[in-house]
Design goal:
The protein has about 260 residues and is an alpha/beta fold. Helix content is about 35%, strand content about 25%. It has nine helices and ten strands. The strands form two sheets. It has a six-stranded mixed β-sheet, with helices on both faces. Strands 2-1-4-5 form a four-stranded antiparallel β-sheet. The protein is globular.
Length: about 260
């Protein structure tokens, strides 16, 4: 029997911030080519989990492996007293495999949309500028922005800016895409255009992990929905199952407001 290796593997992940345990021993395997949606109350640990997966937060215990690159907390892999530089190097290597899209678009306001997509390719990956431009144009076409390549971010709607941010993350050729509430800053009428990009990427079998309060999207588009509460994954199941027959009482209470 062929068993597909996880694209992201999380083991005993713990994170403490300001004396409070935010992530409490998370273990989970994310399969490649699937769209995972993380749901839960504000403050449940979803965004911190995502930031750990991208190496923006260094875990206090446990490990994260993405496409063969591992970030281990100090002492987890038997190496005691890792230096800050060692941990940052592991986090940097992890980010080479994992793209991240935030609530705010984080585009460079003084650069055109095209230049936004080219800059990181050239500076970080040392891509030839001609090739970087070709990659950028193709990705902007993919997200429906080919006719806006010479505009500056302030000339775009919020939905267009978020689509540009997704394209910029894709330009770095990540193996996994992470999204932290990608539609929360958008006007309601702009939400669907961003969610559609993620649905299209799912059809192309891009591995995606999304934190969102858009329950309709979770129900319609997710392969697996994870419910997080108090820094733990309480349930993980296909959307039909988790929305119609949640097993955990906390999941039932949370979903009542949406059903």
């Amino acid at each position: 029997m062929n068993v597909t290796a996880p694209i992201v593997q999380v083991r005993n992940l713990r994170k403490v911030l300001s004396g409070h345990t935010i992530l409490d021993g998370i273990d989970f395997d994310f399969e490649p080519g699937k769209l995972y949606v993380l749901i839960g109350r504000s403050g449940s640990g979803k965004s911190t989990f995502l930031r750990c997966l991208n190496g923006l937060e260094i875990p206090d215990a446990g490990s994260i492996t993405a496409d063969g690159i591992t970030l281990c907390a100090d002492g987890t892999d038997g190496v005691k007293k890792k230096t800050k530089d060692q941990l940052e190097k592991e986090a940097h290597n992890l980010r080479s495999r994992v793209g991240m899209v935030f609530q705010s678009f984080n585009l460079f306001q003084h650069l055109t949309v095209l230049e936004n997509l080219m800059k990181a390719q050239i500076v970080v990956k040392h891509t030839d500028p001609i090739q970087a431009e070709e990659i950028a144009i193709n990705l902007l076409d993919k997200v429906g922005l080919k006719n806006f390549i010479n505009r500056f971010p302030f000339q775009l709607s919020g939905g267009q800016q978020q689509r540009a941010a997704i394209a910029r993350a894709l330009a770095m050729s990540p193996k996994v895409m992470l999204y932290d509430e990608p539609t929360s800053a958008l006007d309601p009428e702009k939400v669907d255009e961003v969610l559609q990009v993620m649905k299209n990427l799912d059809q192309e079998r891009m591995s995606q992990i999304i934190v969102t309060h858009e329950m309709r999207f979770a129900r319609d588009a997710a392969d697996i929905v994870l419910f997080i509460e108090n820094g733990k994954i309480l349930e993980a199941a296909p959307p039909d199952e988790i929305f119609s027959q949640p097993k955990h009482e906390e999941t039932k209470i949370f979903l009542k407001r949406y059903l």
